[in-house]
Amino acid sequence: MSTLDFSPLFRSMIGFDRLANALETAYRTEPGGYPPYNVELLDENRYRITLAVAGFTEAELGIEAKENLLTVTGQRQANESEGNFLYRGIANRAFERRFQLADYVKVQEARLENGLLHIDLVREVPEAMKPRRIEIRAAGASPAIEHASTERPKAA
What we know:
The chain is mainly β. It is built from 2 helices and 7 strands. The model has no long low-confidence stretch (mean pLDDT 80).
């Protein structure tokens, strides 16, 4: 397996080294796995991850969001009444799924219904990070922001 060289991108992109690491990790990650999942774009700032976790209860599932990493785990409780199976096609194993989240993406809600775990995510960009319009002044025009004078008025 070869590695990808992202150095040409860094000539014109500043501060995207984490993007290169994410692409390299995605390149090395095997597709598939257990449990199967969907990632859905609901609108510009809302996403949903849906995992097929049939047979798991809320108590057997765990969701942890730390920094930009979302980890979903499932640990089946030992069942005393295990039968004598001739064939076992339903997966009954523990799992851990990790999802790398972009900056400002937060978990909004998680719910389990009909064997599907839905995790709703929302991107909340801080006001300071949103685009803003900068006024361009003509040469020689007075500044838009005037600073108060530091001199005290003279007493008469």
